[in-house]
Amino acid sequence: MVWSQKPTQSEETFNKIPLMIVLISGAFSAILNQTLLATALPHIMEDLHLEANTAQWLTSIFMLVNGIMIPVTAFLIGRFTTRGLFLTAMGLFAAGTLICAVAPNFLFLMVGRITQAAGAGIIMPLMQTILMLIFPVEKRGTAMGMFGLVIAFAPAIGPTLSGWLVEHFPWRSLFYVIFPIVVIDFIIAYFILINVTKQTNPKVDAFSIILSSLGFGGLLYGFSIAGNDGWASEEVTTSMIVGAVSLFWFIWRQLKLEQPILEFRVFKYKMFTLTTALGMVVFMAMIGSATVLPLLMQNMLGFTAFESGLMLLPGALLMGMMNPITGRLFDQFGAKWLAIIGLFIVTITTFMFAILTAQTTFTYLAVVNAIRMLGIAMVMMPVTTAGLNQLPKDLIPHGTAMNNTMRQISGAVGTALLVTVMINNVQPEKGVNGLVHGVNVSFVVAGITSIVGLVLAFFIKHSHPETEDDPEQTRTKETNRTVTES
């Protein structure tokens, strides 16, 4: 059920600040909830008697369901009002948070995470779509940068808060902290949120949603169980084949539909395709390491959950502070050199995580991670904004949905892949260094992925950030540029 509606108001007749505060608060809750689990996984594993490959599903399922829900948001944004859609999403998120808080076992916890993700999957692309619609092109970089600053506080405090809570309270307290924030945001949104997106009343294709779920879900499941069963096992092979075939069928069907659930024609814009690929590489590196490093510190190096969260804090804070700066730099110079320098930093620091030993210090991990997050900040928001700037306004909802879908799925696959590689390469007979060896190999894999991203960054057009309309509108764009320069 979608909540009641209020009339749509144009850009000129509403105050953007209250709207953005409400939306960002909702996104803050969703991201805080995701990062809270990073340092708490070992405690949950111990309490519920889970293996690492099973426990990582609590992170992967959240990103997977996000990846399933996000494609539908372009349809939902066209079908429902901003206010109704946001309230419904926050209602789902609140219900899922409560289920997680009282969950007696892993199954109930998974149900809660799925419900949370169903709501969170709507919030992020909805907010990005609104940002791209209410701000002009020349201010989008700064707007996205400020958004990144606020949102970065969630991953900044999430792991540290999680570590402190699980050291002093049961892990369920993590969800009791989130729940009142969500409820308060819901109540405020009910009274002040207005409608800014246009309703086009598209038709939904249920079969496309089924194919999307089977496609993305099958591939992720295959990556996850490969750690226990081996890559050549029948279950892994079957899951991968079902996922690949379903995903291919899903894409083919979207190209045939008049009103697709997810508009793959956005990939006709080459810069959007390139920047989306770069976003996937960076998100895979960020989310995967956020899962592996706490496991390394707590299960192998003997640090507490609080200490592992504290190690991640400087990097998250640095990323938050850099987002407004990179946003302004993007508005002035474009995304190319920001992305090249950022991915160079990410690549070097990723390989620095591939030479860890049992004697690796807290300081080394914290400093390298902080520099790594600086590189990620130079890439994430600028390439996202650069890609969306290429799309005409009617394709922006599909662009944000596609961008978020690809990023979340890459994060889910990246987490599953790095954990699988880590487990498959441990050498227990060599003691702690043998266990750390698995982590080193997983970061080698992540480093190779970063190199691919670095190479791709050189193909970004080195131009001032400016909307590229449809190919047929090139002449109009050139005329407008001439007038502006005059």
3D structure, described in words:
The chain has helices spanning about 15-50, 50-55, 55-80, 80-100, 105-135, 135-170, 175-190, 205-230, 235-255, 270-300, 305-335, 335-350, 360-390, 395-425, 430-455, 475-485. The chain folds into 2 domains: about 10-205 and about 260-480, MFS general substrate transporter like domains (Growth Hormone, Chain: A, Up-down Bundle), CATH 1.20.1250; about 205-260. It has about 475 residues and is an all-alpha fold. The termini are far apart.
How would you name the CATH homologous superfamily of the largest domain? MFS general substrate transporter like domains
Per CATH, the class of the largest domain reads Mainly Alpha
Radius of gyration from CA coordinates? 22 Å
Number of helices: 16
Percent of sequence in beta strands: under 5%
Outline the low-pLDDT stretches. Answer: 4-12, 463-486
Q: Can you give the helix content as a percent range?
A: over 70%
